[in-house]
Amino acid sequence: MPHEGPQSPARQSQTDYCRRQQFLPHEEKTHEVPDDLVPSESRKVLMLEDDEELSGILAKALEGLPCAVTRVTNGVDGLRQVMATDFDAIVCDMVMPNLPGDMFYLAVERARPHLCKRFIFMTGHKSEKRWDEFARSKGCLILWKPFELHIFLDAVQ
Questions:
Q1: CA–CA separation, 93 vs 96, rounded Å?
Q2: Which of 27, 34, 91, 154 is deepest in the core (most CB within 10 A)?
Q3: Per-residue pLDDT tens digits for 31-40
Q4: Predicted TM-score (pTM) above 0.85
Q5: How far is CA 56 from the centre of its chain?
Q6: Which alpha helices (H) appear in 41-122, and where do they start and end?
Q7: What is the rounded distance in angstroms from the CA atom of residue 123 to the CA atom of residue 129?
């Protein structure tokens, strides 16, 4: 009596064979990504950096993630932005005119405390231990300039 089970792979197209082996109906789509895994919009990043050239380079790199970057050069302008918008990340230089990074953080801590866990500090003043101590005391990441771009992008993601 001939065997009436599934046909051998030689007698079927490879696709049909794979579908039967995995018990997938012919019509089932297996290539769609669930909606919750697809980012609906870009992340909002506030960047406080008084060096316009560095700020431009970092912002351009972030836009490729994708991120919508708001750039300001001091803490006072940063506070205006924080009061108007919820940001997914806040990249903050420690040494800026008008309001340094630590004072900016403390102001945000009072006005919008939920944003405090989103801070990434950066500074070129590695010899000043107070910046490292402050960032550590607040549980924030600090990047020491100069840093590699991929390290910066990983931190923001």
A1: 7
A2: 91
A3: 454 444 445 5
A4: no
A5: 17
A6: 52-63, 75-84, 101-111
A7: 11
